[in-house]
Design brief:
Elements (H helix, E strand, L loop, with lengths): L4 H19 L5 H19 L4 H5 L4 H8 L21 H12 L19 E3 L15 E3 L8 E3 L2 E3 L9 H14 L3 E2 L7 H4 L5 E5 L15 H8 L4 E7 L10 E3 L6 H7 L7 E3 L9 H14 L5 E5 L4 H14 L5 E5 L10 H6 L4 H15 L6 E5 L5 H9 L4 E4 L1 H7 L21 H4 L4 H25 L13 E4 L5 E3 H4 L7 H4 L3 H9 L8
Parallel strand pairs: 4-13, 5-6, 6-7, 7-10, 10-11, 11-12, 12-13
Antiparallel strand pairs: 1-14, 2-3, 8-9, 14-15
Helix pairs in contact: 1-2, 5-15, 5-17, 6-17, 10-11, 11-13, 14-17
Length: 527
């Protein structure tokens, strides 16, 4: 509330100046007029609903918009890398903002990108484009052991927990998902009323803390899990093994954010920092992992069950494939999280140096499942800086069936990437549990922005595919994406990463896979 104290003082000073102008001297109008104008602007900012930052920082927030008009900008918002290895810069964020606001526009004078930069990727247009489909295709998620399959959209909300995000942010995301007919991943922070109230489709994520389905001692509680998995809004269940920003270390929710409501949702003590362990208690081997997934699907009444990971050792993932073959059990989906992904706070060394980027992780999982003869039973989701239609198409080419986005969805909510998520002082009410800050985020307005962004991005992807001569994502192959490998040569992904034939690993593994396949043990996570 201290942020608004100066507004009260301003109004008082403006009133005093007007009084002095009337009662003492007309010269006081020189001060009174600008003070009244600024006071009125502050009132308008406090009660308008389009800009969260102005609701939280009346008058002062206009300075940010003024600075953004300066070129080059006074602040570098993005130092990360996008799917091609280049800066994930202001222009990408602008695309998201424009689509969320419904103002997406074309630009004149062609590309400003260096098309000869090593690492640049090119989608292949066709000399015979096809018509853009009237409706976006959906992906059926559900293998042979699934009795309640789900039709997944091509772009969905990636995992972000209530607790990390404010109640209004979660409400807006789920409302947007309900309006647009796409899925909303809950993150590992449990199922809250804000996930359930709008009625959007949910992918319930279960992490190492088993929040929402844990015993008092922190173990998995099958009864609580079954009760919540039976809810109509829960369409799929995802077991989180690791996440892109910090694979292998779990997560931390600062005690300042753990209010009574969050403590109740997660089943943890109020006011204490919540630490998700880096490992699961319910399994220690690939075989136990596969069997636990089968148990989860049974407890969930046959709904799709899968797992999420940031890929590391190819040998360990092959061990999971061997366990699937040995037990005759497969998940319905696998979500590959790239090391470049992640919207929450993480140690810098992990964010920059641990885990495979999405391209390598996605290709590893796709080819391993192909070679194991399991690919047709399992759908693959991909997440890691997916923001535009071209990002989406590239991930489908590389082996994904659908994509998830967290960062871009936060931008659609109004996130300005102030990078204060862990301090509870988010200036736009997205990543905070301060009710006064969160009030700035208007749910109805931001829900429409989320819906518009998702629809426009999928529409862009379909338009790109049509230009490539493809009307069905299943027809996208690695020969349709090229990468510049040096200053003179480009190669297709079919050349750079030759795909395995179905079942090839089980019959005659190629030399570059043979050693890892031979060493992979379904009863041990060996590196």
């Amino acid at each position: 509330m201290l942020r608004y104290l100066w507004v009260v003082l301003l109004e008082a000073v403006a009133a005093a100046a007007v009084g002095a102008a009337v009662a003492v001297s007309p010269w006081w109008w020189v001060a009174a007029v600008p003070l009244v104008a600024v006071g009125l602007l502050a009132v308008v900012d406090l009660f308008q609903t389009r800009h969260s930052i102005l609701r939280n920082y009346p008058v002062l927030g206009h300075l940010r918009y003024a600075f953004e008009r300066i070129r080059p900008e006074v602040q570098q918002y993005f130092v990360e890398r996008n799917v091609d290895g280049r800066p994930f810069d202001r222009d990408t964020r602008t695309i998201v903002y424009q689509r969320a606001k419904g103002t997406d526009a074309e630009e004149p004078f062609g590309t400003e990108l260096d098309v000869y930069e090593t690492g640049r990727e090119f989608l292949v247009p066709s000399m015979a484009p096809v018509a853009v489909p009237d409706e976006a295709p959906r992906v059926r998620v559900g293998g042979p052991d699934c009795t309640q399959p789900y039709d997944m959209a091509l772009l969905n909300v990636s995992a972000m927990s209530f607790g990390s995000l404010s109640a209004n942010a979660v409400l807006a995301l789920n409302s947007g998902a309900a309006l647009g007919g796409f899925a909303h991943d809950t993150g590992e922070g449990g199922l809250s009323e804000y996930h359930l109230r709008p009625g959007g489709d949910l992918v319930w994520e279960i992490g190492t803390g088993y929040f929402g389905c844990r015993t008092e001692g922190g173990d998995f509680d099958p009864g609580r899990f079954a009760e919540k998995a039976a809810l109509d809004q829960v369409r799929c269940v995802s077991l989180k093994l690791s996440q892109g920003a910090k694979p292998g270390i779990g997560g931390v929710l600062p005690g300042a954010k753990v209010n009574a409501e969050i403590a109740s949702v997660r089943g943890v003590p109020q006011g204490e920092t919540v630490i998700s362990p880096p490992y699961h208690r319910v399994f220690t081997t690939p075989r136990e992992l596969v069997l636990f997934l089968a148990r989860m699907r049974e407890l969930a009444g046959g709904k799709p069950v899968g797992f999420k990971l940031c890929v590391g050792s190819r040998r360990q993932f092959l061990a999971v494939c061997k366990a699937m073959l040995a037990e005759g059990v497969t998940p319905d989906f696998i979500i590959v999280d790239g090391a470049e992904g992640g919207t929450g706070a993480a140690p810098l060394e992990f964010a920059d140096h641990v885990g495979l980027p999405l391209t390598e992780g996605l290709l590893t999982v796709h080819h391993a499942l192909l070679g194991s003869g399991l690919r047709d039973r399992i759908r693959i989701g991909a997440g890691g800086k997916v923001a535009t239609g071209s990002d989406l198409v590239k991930r489908l080419v590389q082996g994904a069936d659908y994509t998830n986005s967290a960062r871009a969805m936060m931008f659609a909510l109004g996130c300005i990437q102030a990078q204060r998520c862990h301090t509870n002082t988010c200036p736009v009410g997205v990543a905070t549990q301060d009710p006064h800050r969160a009030r700035a985020l208007r749910v109805d307005d931001k829900a429409q922005r989320v819906r518009r962004y998702q629809a426009a991005t999928v529409g862009s992807a379909l338009q790109i595919m049509a230009a490539m001569g493809v009307d069905d994502p299943a027809r996208l192959g690695p020969e349709l994406l090229y990468r510049r490998v040096d200053g003179l040569a480009v190669r297709s992904y079919a050349e750079l990463h030759p795909p395995l034939s179905p079942g090839e690993l089980t019959s005659c593994p190629p030399p570059d896979w043979a050693r890892d396949w031979q060493a992979a043990d379904p009863d041990r996570f060996t590196v």
